């Protein structure tokens, strides 16, 4: 513990960084795991809970074509790894501009 570095970072920024790191690990490990629960289709409410966003935000992302979805009958469903990949791709495209 000799190399402790203290930094002033707002709590909200720290929480956002931790959430993003956890999401990335979940997506990375979901492709190597035998647990198929992350690969099952999820509802918009479940996606919002996973991403930590509101339903209007998820709806906006879907309508703008920023996250992939599919229909089961008339019900909208999402695949979490595909959504995470799309959001990551969007994030990197925006950084390059």
UniProtKB/TrEMBL annotation:
Residues 43-80 form the Helix-turn-helix domain. Coiled coil: none annotated. It comes from the Bacteria. One of its GO terms (molecular function) is DNA binding. InterPro entries: HTH_17, SinI_DNA-bd. Transmembrane segments: none annotated. Pfam families: HTH_17 (PF12728). NCBIfam families: excise (TIGR01764). This is Helix-turn-helix domain-containing protein. It comes from Ginsengibacter hankyongi.
């Amino acid at each position: 513990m000799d190399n402790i570095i203290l930094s002033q970072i707002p709590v909200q920024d720290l929480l956002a960084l931790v959430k993003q790191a956890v999401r990335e690990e979940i997506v990375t490990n979901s492709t190597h795991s035998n647990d198929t629960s992350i690969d099952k289709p999820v509802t918009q409410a479940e996606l919002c809970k996973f991403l930590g966003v509101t339903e209007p935000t998820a709806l906006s992302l879907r309508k703008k074509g920023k996250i992939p979805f599919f229909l089961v009958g008339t019900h909208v469903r999402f695949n979490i790894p595909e959504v995470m990949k799309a959001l990551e791709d969007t994030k990197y495209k925006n950084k390059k501009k």
